[in-house]
Amino acid sequence: MRKTWCTLLAGTLAVALTACTGDDQPSDQDIPVPTGGTPTPTRPQIGSWTPLADLPQARTELSAVVLDGAVYVAGGLAPGPGGDAFYRYDPESDAWRELAPLPEDRHHAPLAAYDGRIYVVAGFANRVSDVFPFGDPTDTLFVYDVAGDSWRLGPPLPVSTGAHAVIGGGPTPSLSYSAATEIWRP
User: Fold this and answer.
1) Is the dihedral of CA 41, 42, 47, 49 positive or negative?
2) Fewest beta carbons within 10 Å, which of 15, 88, 97, 124?
3) Which domains does the chain have, with CATH numbers?
4) What is the pTM of this model?
């Protein structure tokens, strides 16, 4: 039976992963039987929580996306510096790896994954302003190349924004971006 990873992204505050079979039902193929004849679970039980590796630095208001079976988390608010942090979680090894940091601190900045790249779309800068006590909204687009572990600046959004959603497809987007032409359209 094909094994898939089910992902629960609770807002932008937590990421929980659990292994499951393709139809979300237990399978004898997933539970090896040792010589004693008693099944030994090798994956979390469906309907239960299992602790996984901690994110290397505690943070809130971060964003997450899944690409090629790995979970990427970016930015967020943390005690002290670290709003530019970028990590990848590998569910197979239950381990986090620190990657090239974001070009600038961000929180409430949604992520999107497409064609081997991760996009950080606007969000709030980690600085206090007279208007926004938690930071100014930005118009930046950061593009991460997974293969090269590097960032580049994409074209700016036509508006500054933060704490918004990024959705692939849809009949009437309020703002769309073409990765091929690198153009934003209202």
Assistant:
1) positive
2) 97
3) 56-186 (2.120.10.80)
4) 0.69
